[in-house]
User: What shape does this take?
Amino acid sequence: MGSKEWWKQLGMSTLGGALGTALLRVVEIIFPGVVWFLGASLNPVIGAIVPFVAGFFMAWILWGRRQKHKTQRYDGDTTSSEGIPDSLVKMSFNLHSNRITARVHDDLKLEFESDTKAQGYFDDIVKQQYVKGEIKSFAENRFRLVCPPSLDKGDLILDLAPFNFAYFDIMNSEYTSDTAKEYVNDQIEALAWRIRERFPRSDLHINARNWSLIGVEVMLVTSDATDPEKCYTLLRRRGRHVAIAKNVWSTSFGGMCDPVRMRGHPERLDILQSVRNELDEEIGPLSADPQNMFFIGFHVNTRTGATDLLGLWKTQANWQELVGLITERKPKVGERFQNTLEAKEPYVYDNQNLIVEFNGRAIFQGLVAVREEMRREEPDRPFRLNPEMVACVVRSLQVSDQAASARELVVELERNAFF
Assistant: This one.
């Protein structure tokens, strides 16, 4: 508990003590015999101290329970899903992209535009990024969940509030002071009571104090007219300029949902359009029918708090077309390769890539080969897999009638110390 919360608890407890004393005085007037029986009237000191102490500790306990149930950062929480550390697939489904309803509650937005103090903290981050030669962050609206997702008649319902990326960056950046993070936490807490009144449904990971931005993690699966039995997928190692999960292997593409609104429904966020934007910005104009894009789960990273919709997109493109949007080289299946073609999104220019067959055994073998190669090149840098990526691969295999292959992949990754 921070010092500010401690003082709040002390103040509320003192108020509770005063109310306890006042209550006993009322009881003494109405039922003097009862108070005498309790011994409070035998000694004026006891009569003053006992009810105050009782009220103080009762208020202290109740306020402490309130603090306990607030959302915090769950560092060290190793809740797992399918045996994957730091991974929790809170909901598994296989929904067409038009079965997602994302409702945006603009009145629950934190107003960064008028928050000069937060702007100052964010400017400090940008200055440090400039000094370090990094691509600077942006201050644009994204979205956070204000309560857990729910299913209603086969549709996934997401209740969201606009949340400027600058707030997220302040909470997440290595260049941010504890004072800045405490300030943003206070702004979130100031709005949390209103959120709880409207959305009492909450859980350990998703509630009124959540500051993780809703994102998507998508696996692309290619087709091959010459060999219909074979299909391939793309894995990518994130570069050093992304906001989170730097230098870890992740899905084909992903990102935080941007504010593209549905025509005629200004209160809703178009999740599918966000996915299409991410594909176009990170990879390019791939032959991929949006009708074949399915959401397959809702994931929480129990260490960082990151919240993502997991997706599987089976495309009409073959793997050569996919690779041709990323590099001018002609890599082989299973060969690691670097981006050489510039994407619209600058944060992915230093990604590394791997094309493998879409089955558990081939994915595992590809990761083993790349890990050994990178250990020789970068012996001091750990080889890390994003929990969201592993969960998305596993769910993609499961919904593609490869449940046994998915189990084998997790077992082999654990056995070979990838986790």
Summary: Confidence is low (pLDDT under 50) at residues 65-79. The first helix runs from residue 3 to 30.
